[in-house]
Amino acid sequence: xxxxxxxxxxxxxxxxxxxxxxxxxxxxxxPRCAGCDLPGALLCERCRAALPLIAxxxxxxxxxxPDGSHGCAECGRTSFAxxxxxxxGVLEWPLSRMVTLHKDAGELRLTVLLAxxxxxxxxxxxxxxxxxxxxxxxxxxxxxxxxxxxxxxxAAFAAAAGVPAIDVLEARPRRDQRGLTxxxxxxxxxxxxxxxxxxxxxxxxxxxxxxxxxxxxxxAATPALLEAGASEVRVVAIAxxxxxxx
Length: 246
Description:
The longest helix has 15 residues, at 14-28. This protein is α/β, with parallel strands linked by helices. It has a four-stranded parallel β-sheet, with helices on both faces. It has a two-stranded antiparallel ribbon with strand order 3-4. 35% of the residues lie in helices and 14% in strands. It has helices spanning 14-28, 45-49, 95-104, 111-122, 125-128, 139-145, 149-161, 182-190, 216-227, and strands spanning 84-90, 131-134, 169-171, 193-195, 204-212, 232-240.
């Protein structure tokens, strides 16, 4: 079984290493707002106020889409292996730009901010969960980016929510989901994830991801977590793509 996230290097050194890296990054590349690109903060007050947050009381309990509490136009009759889902906000500016900068531009200083938003959205689920898992990057994406943004988000979420992060899934080579049709996404994701050899998961697991589009990847990850020992999986995603946007 792989070690839990955050246990790769000694615990006493990890905060020092992270703090030193953050200071150096700020000195070399002063922070700019992920929304409007103005200097001074990773997310300025104006852009923070503009975040397209999803009201929990109005959201679909199955897929986290907005305005879906009385019949969801996004997931319809689609069946999911996970039990429920919550999403921070809609995949629109400035949240969409934050996600893109974090994953594709390597602005890793956004990790803590995005994870804090996810932890806030998880709410009481954090007390319910015994661990938080993540969808690992495909081998090609990991090679291209040089880091696994999902693993980083899970570690930061664990620190914010007080839930242990676990690394139990293995990604097999797969096509990038962006640009694929709904059915192609499901076919692409179906055999792309499996539990690591000898990995185990506790009964109650939160599955964290940055974007929930059709739910195909999260739906493919859930059976692997169940195979590893989970009895119920709930999903927390940062952004929800809506209105047929793939």
